[in-house]
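dumping the sequnces here before i forget
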Amino acid sequence: MKKCVHELTNTGNPSLPEAETKKFKRLCRESDDYVRYAFYLIMKQLTKNHSEIRLSAFQLADELFNRSHAFREILVLHLQQFLALTTALEVNKPLPPPSAAANKLKSETLLAIQRWYEKYGKGYRKLVHGYDYLKNCKFVDFTNLQAQNQAERLRLEKEEKRKQKAMADKVTKVLKEISETQQEIVNCATETENCLKLLLPTTSEETLMDFSSLESNNPSLESREPFQSCSVSNQSHNTSHCTNLDRDKSKCLSDKVGQSSLSGMLLNNVESMDNTSLISDNDCEDEENDLVAHGYNSTKFILSIEVPDKVSVQETTDNTDIMQSLKDSSKLIDNTYLPKVIRWLEILSKNGGKENDIKSAIDLKIHLETIKSKCVDLKLVSMETNKNKLDDSDDDFEEVPEKEGFEPHIPPHLRAEYGLTDNVTTQAKPQLVTVSSESFSKASTGWNLKERLTSQVAADPTTMANALAKVESQSVMSTSPKMSRQNSQETASNIPFVEFGADLACWENPDQIEVPSVIKYDSLHRFWTPKETETEKPSQHELSALKNRVFSFPGKFEPVKWKCRAPMPNGKVCERMDRIKCPFHGTIIARDETGKPSNVTDSSEAHQKEVTALVEQEEPSTSCCNENHELQPWQDPELQREIEHATGHDLGSARSQKLLDKATKGKGKGKKSKKSNLTNIKAIQNTTHKRLSAKVFNKRSLKKVCATLDNCDYKRIRDKFGNQFHYSLK
Amino acid sequence: MSSVSQKANHHALLHRLTNQSNGLLKPLKLQRSVVSYFMQHLELSRNKDFKTVHSSAINDVNIDLTENRYLLSGGADGTIAIHDLENLTDIDEINHSRTYKLVCSVSPSNRNAHKRSIETVQWYPLDTGIFTSSGTDRLLKIWDTNTLKTAEEYNFSGVVHCHQMSSIATKHNLIAIGTDSSIVKLVDPRAGSATHSLRGHKDGEVRAVSWSNKDEFLLATGGVDNFAILWDVRTAKGCLMKLQDKKKKKSGFTPDTTHDGSVNGLHFTGDGLHLATVGTDQKFFLWNVYTGKKLPMNFPALSHIKRRCIKFYLTKGGSDNHAFIPTGSSISTFSLSLPSSKSKHLYGHYNSVNCCTYHEQGNQLISGGNDQKILAWTHKGDQDFEEYLCDRQVEKMENKVKRNLEEVLELPPMQPIPEAIAQTLDTWSDDEV
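..and the predicted 3d for all of it:
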């Protein structure tokens, strides 16, 4: 039972877990003594210095109060103590820290007292007295409490009404719009449909025709001719050839087959393997040619035809107008009508439009979408490009048009390749500030928050910090998995640097580098010098000396003593002797004779690294999503706490603190995880102000500061009045 | 355990009853045992209420000695109220309680009212036409009850902590007054001024005064000098005796004071042979008035004894008398003849209890506290009365049923259980089984 109460009160949730509560109640139900013991336990929990514990304990008490007479009796007996612990009526006993929970506890207790009073007032005299006491002595305004609730309810109702009205307004507006534009849309849709019909028959017809034509082979091709002239062709690059072929159809089908094997339009599958094995390739081809040429439909051959799902229509002088109108209308549908309909649908579904309206809107949308898909499927060949092509090249060559309505969707990691940098930079701009601030803080102090900031910044894949962190982590990985980041920073500070030289100064225009002219005195006499000293033209040799840079390696060379020894496909192990990372097998880790990683965690880590690297390469967007689990910059628990203190509202500092704790735990700082989910009050008290004041007003530091100040004073006095007798004694 | 002892008590009482009917026991003894039986199991009364008058803390209550009927109470804002303890209203349906009616009251806006907190109120022992009150406005007022006007006012140089009139005096009419000064003043209303002053306390306030109920000239006073002093008001040269505890004190300041802290409450026992003192050392002592020796009894330790006059009460009528002492938000009670190591606590007031008095005729304890309430405590909280009411209701119902059966009428609808009792039932829901 004790355990039960402890568990129940240490959840840290604003409400009790149901199953546990039930279990507890079942325990309590067994006898009144248990109930009394429960009261004792609850009171004990109520004295804890944590509002969340108290809140949970109070809720538990409320549960029991509504059930057990014994509990009511004992609680009413100790109601004053109970009230003091839950409502902070005593001035000198305020509620403990998490202020959000404390506020909730107070208001809930008062409400509960009122509830109890109404429900059990007649049975328990002291409850009535308590209620009166609160009302008269502590001036708790119960009517106001109720009125407040009522006011709140009223306000909510009003809000609801307002919302409904707004929704209705929206719906009526949309309906009006629909009724206005529906005709237009339908007209447009029919227009496009008609255009499409004129341009090409429906696909089902076509395939039928195709099949029939192929069934009857050559003659049917003739019949297919009109269609071809109507410029139905396949999409692939070779389609133009196809159409040409149509024109000089003297060529037999086999040739076409030969070509189409390239284009993938028709595939000859030799079904019976024995046949092919008996007859040589040539023979087979010949025979095939013959067979097809003679319209002999051999059972040995099955012609499978893949009809491409995309069909393009070439624009000719005959169908220019149709094409134009089709293009216009499809554009219209694509750009205005479809989004409009989608918007209507959204509004209608969100604001509770009538079912019929929604249905009709959906129908319209589907209709439009089918038309659009048809248009997209059907690549329209623009007249202009066609003409251009005609001008500079042969008639038979026709270019595949650019995709209509093509929206470039380039995954972010490929943006650079496409030369699309503007988007990225705009995203990066706001981050720039944080980066600079971060660097500033880095320069100023070695403070904890800084690391957090950097980690936050690093979480964003677009920032430089992230890239740096990646590189860093890799380097850390490469040196040794145990090496911390600090170490790497140290090594970074140890990197030797060479002073800014002439070659760097004239980096942009290396021709301008001037070698300092050297004046050479011919005579070494002290007084007798030549009148004009000749400056010697610097030689090419000297110039090149200036341009060159010599770096001396200050560290000690340590020969690499290990090999990569990763297993290779030929059964050997990799013999490369890299210091940190093998270019083929990644980070060098300890391996046994066969090349298997000796440390399992190492291997799994390495494996994970590989996988994550792969994933990141493939879709950095998802990895970015994963990193969103970390704290957002606005979720800084300290800031939230301060705001909470000021306002008394729960902004969720507790949650973010928990998140933060989790994060730190994830980093493996070895911090012991608390069993309960309560908010950490100590963390709340651990503000920057507190820490600073603890440091500043530290006794020793104060002493030190005082001593120095005294020293200063003494010095000044001695300087001023040191010659006076009174001061000189000191 | 308590139920067992209760039962034993009950049996003892019944046994005594049979003895008395057999002529083996004097009726007075039976009466006393009954009275003490009522004192034993006090609980907050379920159905008795006082009409609320006070809008501030209640500092003193007093029941008149002539009729034992009127309750006088003084509040911290100068309010004085008189309730009739024999005039109860009918059962109020809303509160399910009967309230003691208010006879009259003096509101703080009254011209004659105390401007500040009233510390002590007392009826004139021989007549309910007069009562006295004193408070922190340094005034002692003598009131005419019928007109509710002050008949006389005495001004003092310091706060009047306490005053008392002798309840048995016939040869004098003195009011003993303890003020901020160490000198106890005796006011004679007939003379219209302070006639005596008793000098004996070392410097400091006098927090408690009490006249003996056996010897009309015997006065006990207690002060912050840790001494309780007995006076014979006729001798002018000094005190009769100082009550001195020979036990070594913790403080070691003055080794033989009455308490190891200021003496804040004094009360003579019903027989007048003993004096009870309460001190800020959270202790309760009984002293033999004639020898000045402390009785060798270990009374339970108290708590929350404040630095002001403690208005506690020792009952008189029972065979086993009890002390009722306000300690913090509870009233501790224990038997005087057989003190146990632990006192029983009566919880009912919120915030601290200031005063309590026992209404012997009504067998109820009346207490006032900082929560602006006067509460009545009765034997088991009038549970018996409630049960009686229930029984009566059941009886009524049965009668009705009988009548109905005779008249062959349809059964009356089942009367629901009285709400107050219904509310005290357990309501475990079945889903928790």
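Confidence is low (pLDDT under 50) at residues 409-416 of chain B.
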